[in-house]
Specification:
single chain; alpha+beta; eight-stranded mixed beta sheet; five-stranded antiparallel beta sheet; globular; binds biotinyl-5-AMP
Length: 286
């Protein structure tokens, strides 16, 4: 268990004032009720640039699988493609270090597994109808409550480390976000009309993560089946904006590597990209 302190006195004072209204995420409190086997090495920060960045450094220094980096706020939280991820106080911003024996191509499915874990946790704890938007968003009532960012390193195409970053808008007031994000985002507090216990959320998330990760390592198709059940994307007309193409068609399925299979003239697979749901209605005719 490691607690890192950072920041000059004045900044610390402002943060402490803000945090006094919140439950704190100190590792000893999380660990007190955590019954995981190996996801239990917690590194805690009041403020950090990015938990993914720190977890990557840990990975490269040989840290054990199951290391978790948690911060109360991130100053440079990252989304995909270097986009900013807003991480004010009140959220749950954490990264898990894993060392699965899978190929780099399979590593994409870690994001799908983390999506299943997170949506399941929201459903079980809060009875919220959390759904997954391919490739990395958790939605409630069609608004983004959580984003996932997986990064990995490999030797000869075999993953040597993977960092799964999970950002959850837990006790966030949406007014804290710029207006464009207010329209597309939500928070657990907003949906439930009351704050959640972040400690309980983290304990349940880590426990669920460990359980589903063990299944994933034996038979990832069992996890992908749950992904299909929770998916808000399959069956819809979608527009995928990828690095060098835009694909419009109906989202039919995912393959074993997490690529989205889209019906165009024939079918097309897209490994990653931004997904826009075009149709409200889902249909599963071939
Ligand atoms: C993601 O990227 O959704 C991945 C987010 C991963 C965040 C976690 S927090 C812990 C760990 N440490 C990190 O530094 N990152 C991970 P993407 O699909 O590219 O979505 C990014 C877009 O979501 C931005 O361009 C905004 O439009 C929007 N956005 C930013 N902050 C948001 C928030 N807090 N809630 C909802 N939407 C947000």
């Amino acid at each position: 268990m490691t607690t890192h302190w950072k920041g000059v006195a004045f900044v610390q004072f402002v943060k402490d004032k803000h945090m006094s209204k919140l439950d704190s995420l100190l590792p000893k409190e999380i660990l007190a009720g955590l019954s995981t086997d190996f996801i239990k090495h917690i590194h805690y920060f009041k403020a950090i640039d990015s938990t993914n960045e720190f977890a990557k450094q840990l990975a490269k220094k040989g840290a054990v699988e199951g290391s978790v980096v948690i911060a109360e706020t991130q100053e440079k939280g990252r989304g995909r493609l270097g986009r900013a991820w807003l991480s004010p106080f009140g959220g749950v911003w954490l990264s898990l270090l894993l060392r699965p024996k899978i190929t780099l191509k399979e590593a994409v499915t870690l994001t799908l597994m983390a999506s299943v874990v997170t949506a399941k946790t929201f459903r079980k704890l809060y009875k919220l109808n959390a759904k997954i938007k391919w490739p990395n968003d958790i939605l409630i009532n069609e608004r983004k409550v959580c984003g996932i960012l997986t990064e990995s390193g490999a030797d000869n195409n075999v993953v040597s480390w993977a960092v799964v970053g999970i950002g959850i808008n837990a006790n966030i007031n949406l007014e804290e976000f710029p207006s464009a994000i207010q329209k597309s985002a939500t928070s657990l507090k907003e949906e439930l009309k009351k704050p959640v216990s972040r400690i309980k959320l983290i304990r349940n998330l880590l426990k669920q993560f460990e359980k589903d990760y063990k299944i994933f390592l034996i038979d990832k198709n069992r996890i992908l089946e749950v992904w299909r059940k929770f998916s808000d994307t399959l069956g819809r007309e979608v527009k995928i904006v990828a690095a060098n193409e835009v694909v419009v068609g109906k989202a039919m399925d995912i393959d074993n590597f997490g690529a989205l299979i889209i019906k165009v003239n024939g079918t097309k697979k897209v490994i990653t990209g931004d997904c826009i749901h075009l149709s409200k209605i889902k249909s599963f005719d071939k």
